[in-house]
Amino acid sequence: MRHKGSGQKPDDGHFNHLIHEQSPYLLQHATNPVEWYPWCPAAFERASSENKPVFLSIGYSTCHWCHVMAHESFEDEAVAALLNTSFISIKVDREERPDIDAQYMTVCQIMTGHGGWPLTIIMTPDKRPFFAATYIPRESRSGRLGLLDLLPRIIEIWETQPDKVLQSTTQMLAVLESTQPERSTRDITAPVVDRAAQYFLTHFDGDFGGFGSAPKFPSPHQLLFLLRYWHKNGAEGALTSVLTTLEAMWHGGLFDHIGYGFHRYSTDRKWLVPHFEKMLYDQAMLSLAYAEAFQITGDSFHKRALEQTLTYVLRDMTAEQGGFYSAEDADSEGVEGKFYTWSLDELQAVLEPEEFALATTIFSLEPEGNFLEESTGERTGQNILHHSRPLGEISSAMKLEPKTLLDIKERIRQKLFAARVHRVPPLKDDKILTDWNGLMIAALARSAQILDNASYRDAASKACSFVLSEMSDSRGRLTHMFKRGNARAEGYLDDYAFMGWGLLELYEATFDAAYLKKAIELTQVMLELFWDNTQGGFFMTAHDAEMVLTRTRELYDGAIPSGNAVAFNNLARLSLITDDPAFRDKADQMRQVFSASIERAPQAYTHFLSAADFYAGPHQEIVVCGNLTSAETRHMLSIIRSQYLPDKVLLFVGPPTTSVGLSDLAPFTRSFSPAGERTLVYVCSDRTCQLPISDPQQLVDALGLTRRSGI
Hints:
The protein is 48% helix and 10% strand. The protein is built from 27 helices and 19 strands. It is globular, with a radius of gyration of 26 Å.
């Protein structure tokens, strides 16, 4: 069993400078014997006045190895003595300060060839790094220096070879500057998109889904890209790879079959053993992937996976005010996965004998467990509940109708869920982040459209209202984080881009033009604050934000799409809706400015490629004219919303109201109006519209709809 500390020393009355912070991660370290500072001027001023290097540690509240390093080293008096005597120590929550994390993570990757968390940086009082690493053990082992040996060596170099330190930092900054995307005037071409798709098809694991070997990450933006590639190019392999992966992830231990929701990633090829933390952004992006798969296939499996994921979010990750919490930890009682795994004795204590026998087959239980101790590989007696085969195969083997199997599984699940409630739960990181909330709003709003689910729409609306009222100021600028009743940290590019995405999806879910108006306003503020007037594209930080090392433009996709990619897609959609030349001009520039970087490794930029593909067209601009209370209108909308149309924008013109008018935001819709009681649908491309359609079958024909089945 994998053990780790809480990252927090027992409270002996000692507090360091983190005690007044709001971040759960920083508060975990507030009683460490290390004299931690948050990132603040006072820390750097003290480092400068005392001529001490800065020891910077970056992590987040649900990070496994962050907790391990905290337990081994930052709760240790000997390590603390070294740090307190010779360094100024700073703790940063990467989710609270992604700008700091992004720059120093790039430094670590340049210096060491890899990255990860905890991120350890040692730097000068003016923030220039000269040493980087990830997890560092307390004591040296296996040829790897531990902190007790490393820290004295760093101090010796600092005191005896200052010129060497200066030379190292100067070279590092020059290399950092050179990593920024170079300006290009070329377009992103079809062969570049083909290369990205072929990369994934080449690395597709046909046996277990996903791409490459262990560890395997969900990376749903890659799946969304492959769905679009299939749609435009008819590449059956792209569709197969996505559907296989979505099925394998849900059947495996990556999905929590008792409480629902996806864990962060799988440590093995089969999606069986996850790192058990749950992140809000994974739930959002995977919801979008399952929703689009359901549009394509009509398969109830994808609908069920989507609904279960959203059930988890709305039950466990939603604040009373409407915003969404950030994450849940992997651990409880100091043991990773303890909340989620089961011994056979524990299961027998909850289930009736017949239910236990059925659960053994349904959830692939093993007497010695299937959860291995990480360091020894020995079985622990604990089981990760999963399906080793698709449910259809299990029902056939058990000679049960599929629905009967689902009913049995649900009865067992409810009993286990009720029992699990009495366990010590993992830590919930209850800070609310604007960017991740934008992703979740987009996912809920899209799901509301596809499934015609008012509760999803209402949850998205409530979260949006919370962010716009509690996490923005009178200037229309967003803040990044909300905790303990307070909003803090000026918003980053991702906050504006992802909230813009959420607002656009929410408009299509509600047809309330106020959401479209706010999306336009946020995009305009984003252009004012983040646009690079020299090279093009968006900086991560605003022009008046704190300068860390340099202003960077993040382009590659990580666990979530890059802010530049989402901003590009928003600009592309808004240019179609509003016909605003400013949006079209900026979208044109973005398509070109990053093309050289993308050509070198297109598989790292899948969300940007999806946006570029959308912008290149052809598009469908669909305008529905009618009354939302009309059954005829709702039927026509259900036809449109239930189908996979990634190249469309959907607008609605209803009876005149005193609220925000669509025609003021999308002038080309002024010529459209309802025709009495009839519902009319205009299908347009590049502002050229077909004759209005009032017959559902004609709408199906005009859109060229096809629903695949049996895949």
